[in-house]
Amino acid sequence: MDLSSIDSSWLIAKNVVRVYVATPNQTSQFVDESEFLLVCKEAKTIQYLVKLSTNPHFIIADHPIYYGRIHWALERMLEEKEFKEQANWTILRANVFATGILLPSIEMWKKDTNKPMALLLDEHSPLALVHPADVGAVAAKLLSLKDPSPHFHKTYTISGPEDVTGKDIVSYVEEIVKKKIDVEYKNEKVFKTVMESDKYPENVWRSMEKGHKKNLWTGQSRLANTETSDEVIELAAPHSTVKQTIQHALQGYLSF
């Protein structure tokens, strides 16, 4: 549902008392999400709110990726007394999504398997990619708790169950398609293609390009640096593997 179409009277009429806020990383994200937080505050009926945030390494005021700064500002809003004294919330900081990083490369490669697969990942740098469904499962578990109060005003990190490298990705693909494939690591063309197809302004995708290089090519978001919070493991431990994500992306593909 489009958050911009929701006002406080709708929340009251529908008797909404718990919400999951997971807005897409578009240029209007701060406007859309901050306005919705104001709507929730105005309704005075929301007992508990779970907010999806981004990679914990991105939540700084001067991060090059624009949506890192957006989430930093939104988290600061919730921490302010105007919200904290009235709203009960939990923030989920998710590591890099496996689907967002891998699916564009796989879809492009499927169009011509004789060409090298263009991977944005480095060959050797580890990364604890997480599946969006695993993040959603944590949010659902929190929102379904009879008493979520132990999680009020807490911030949790969610990473995938394992570290993978670009080389691992290629091995998984080769195992599934049963043939050797060529690959180009740290290939920025796939990133640029996705950004242009989604019609991101150049200054926006340049900010993402700059920030992701530091993160994806240095091992910054490996498990040792982005460990899943103990509370998350107790609630709904992430279990989806990168290999499973790749298998699903290649399911039904018969041109081998």
UniProtKB/TrEMBL annotation:
SUPFAM superfamilies xrefs: NAD(P)-binding Rossmann-fold domains
InterPro entries: Ergot_Alk_Oxidoreductase (IPR051604), NAD(P)-bd_dom_sf (IPR036291)
The organism's place on the tree of life at top rank: Eukaryota
UniProt-recorded name of the protein: NmrA-like domain-containing protein
Lineage: Eukaryota, Metazoa, Spiralia, Gnathifera, Rotifera
